[in-house]
Write a structure and sequence with these properties.
- By secondary structure, the chain is an alpha+beta fold.
- The protein has 2 domains: about 5-70, Winged helix-like DNA-binding domain superfamily/Winged helix DNA-binding domain (Arc Repressor Mutant, subunit A); about 75-255, GAF domain (Beta-Lactamase).
- It contains 12 helices and 8 strands.
- β3 (about 105-110) and β4 form a beta hairpin.
- It is globular.
- Mean pLDDT is about 85; it is low at about 260-275.
Amino acid sequence: MQENSRKDFVEALARGLEVIRSFDRLHIQQTISQISERTLLARPTVLRLLITLDELGYVRCQDNRYSLTPKVVDLGMAYVSSLGLYGAAKPHMENLSKKVDQTVSLAELDGSDIVYTGRVEVPKIVSVGVTVGSRLPSSSTALGRVLLAEIPDTELHDVLNTPSLSMYVPRKRLTADQIRPRLQTVREQGWAESDEDLQYGVQAIAAPLRGEDGRVIAAIGLATHTSEIGKEIVRERYLPLLLETARSIETDWSECRKLPTSESALNMDGMHLLHLRRNSA
């Protein structure tokens, strides 16, 4: 961090965010002592932060145990909404999901992890169990490999060495040297796959979503279980549909970027605006 930025760094804000991040699937409810232990913050500091978060509606307290409220979702959705991509992608993701009867996901790269920024869920008996906001190690997933393929080779080692914030332990975690040949294949063929690298029985395919400048802004993909769907079906039937969906999203996303950005327009769904624009053309 630059010296000028460090002077303006707001320690209280950073600590408040650290308290929020201390909650996860294994720590749904926590006492002040537990939060203090996980964040390495003093108990009086944790108490003051919790009182503030409670007042703002981000946590609730019951029997001296604190838990997050649904309002915390607004923090993550603010990013998704500001990008606007999910608004353009959602109808196409829903259409693809209906055609293949599988969950379709949207993800972006953050450090060495992928973060799910959109999901159209199809309930399955066997699933990885991820939701919007979940993190998975990028090198073990098809979505991650699509995104890693955009990273300059000189930066790949540093990206993969960034400590993962995912709680998920993959079956295979590939190093930069191990994954380079696979990323080259992704660049050449325009899509990625993972074959039981994340967990036994899970196979996945993914494709890039590019902006108008050609840069990859996200990845779209779907995963199936080998006990349900054969690998040849995934490649021969699902892959063409996935690539077609990606191109359709890129087209609509490009159109959405041309739409007005007034406050009233921003309150509308991106596809609604696109529909209005097309009808007025």
